């Protein structure tokens, strides 16, 4: 039985492969035509890919520069970086406690009143400034606990007046210190009731809320706290002259015993009065952003 190979050899021997010249020419022409068609199709595809790529590039550039694309990308990259940084910082033991005894203190710009004694708000208040301070410290690799307890609402539910506010916030501070022995600094954030001309400064064309450092002389930690306040005040004045309102010592009067402001619970405890009732949140944020640099330098030097 013949195999395929034997059969093929037999055909070659029987019918010599000697095509005519016309057959060769016709076949060559057909092959050339086919090659030209394939080449044209290849060029069309290449042109199509190139044109599509160019169009996408133009759209991407237009989106980036004219339709907030740059902002979107920047925000995503920033969020990614902040997320990684925040994760690293949060793994550290907290070294700063931030809280607000008069947490509903607000601003004329956030309320419907022009009376300092009525400028209170349940959400748009000094707690936002404390939160900004906490975030600013974390951006500088300082882990901070920001306690957002609604002290004023707590007092209301207990039937207490504002005179008892430091008694209620004392519970907040004691609990935080008991649960976090690593805390080295406690900051009680307030805003003053003073007018704008006393609580605002313009530095190189930008408005900032001035900051005051309040210390109680009734605390057993008075000397240490005063020394800290003077140190921070000196540092911020050196970098931003006029931003500080100085160190304000609260002393006992004959008819009214001075509160410790809970500064007896921890050495390195201060009240920060950031701006006043006529300042804006933006001005408050600017101030705590730059103050965070001073706090970070202080803690890193210890």
Describe the secondary structure blueprint for this structure.
Elements: H1 4-14, H2 21-66, H3 69-90, E1 96-99, H4 126-138, E2 144-146, H5 151-158, H6 165-179, E3 185-192, H7 196-199, E4 200-203, E5 206-209, E6 211-216, H8 222-239, E7 244-250, E8 269-276, H9 281-300
Helix pairs in contact: 2-3, 4-9
Keywords: Membrane, Transmembrane, Transmembrane helix
Protein name: Stage II sporulation protein P
Pfam family, one: SpoIIP
Description:
The protein is an alpha/beta fold and 302 residues long. It folds into 2 domains: 1-67; 94-300, Zn-dependent exopeptidases (Aminopeptidase, 3-Layer(aba) Sandwich), CATH 3.40.630. The chain is built from 9 helices and 8 strands. The strands form 2 sheets. It has a 6-stranded mixed β-sheet, with helices on both faces. Strands 4-5 form a two-stranded antiparallel sheet. The relative contact order is 0.12.
């Amino acid at each position: 039985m013949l195999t395929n190979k034997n059969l093929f050899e037999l055909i070659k021997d029987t019918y010599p492969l000697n095509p005519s010249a016309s057959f060769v020419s016709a076949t060559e022409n057909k092959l050339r035509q086919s090659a030209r068609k394939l080449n044209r199709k290849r060029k069309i595809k290449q042109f199509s890919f190139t044109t599509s790529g160019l169009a996408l590039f133009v759209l991407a550039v237009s989106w980036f520069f004219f339709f907030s694309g740059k902002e979107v990308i920047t925000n995503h990259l920033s969020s990614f970086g902040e997320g990684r940084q925040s994760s690293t910082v949060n793994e550290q033991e907290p070294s700063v406690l931030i809280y607000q005894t008069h947490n509903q203190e607000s601003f004329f710009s956030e309320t419907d009143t022009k009376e300092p004694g009525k400028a209170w708000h349940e959400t748009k208040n000094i707690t936002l400034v404390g939160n900004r301070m906490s975030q600013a410290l974390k951006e500088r690799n300082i882990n901070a606990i920001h306690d957002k307890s609604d002290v004023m609402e707590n007092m209301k539910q207990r039937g207490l007046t504002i005179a008892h506010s430091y008694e209620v916030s004392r519970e907040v501070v004691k609990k935080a210190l008991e649960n976090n022995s690593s805390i080295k600094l406690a900051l009680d954030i307030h805003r003053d009731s003073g007018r704008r001309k006393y609580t605002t400064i313009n530095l190189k064309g930008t408005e900032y809320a001035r900051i005051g450092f309040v210390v109680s002389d009734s605390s057993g930690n008075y000397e240490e706290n005063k020394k800290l306040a003077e140190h921070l005040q000196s540092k911020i004045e050196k970098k931003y002259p006029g931003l500080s309102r100085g160190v304000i010592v609260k002393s006992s009067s004959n008819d009214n015993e001075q509160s410790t402001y809970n500064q007896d619970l921890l050495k390195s405890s201060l009240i920060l009065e950031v701006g006043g009732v006529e300042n804006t949140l933006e001005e408050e944020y600017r101030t705590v952003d730059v103050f965070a640099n001073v706090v970070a330098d202080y803690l890193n030097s210890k």
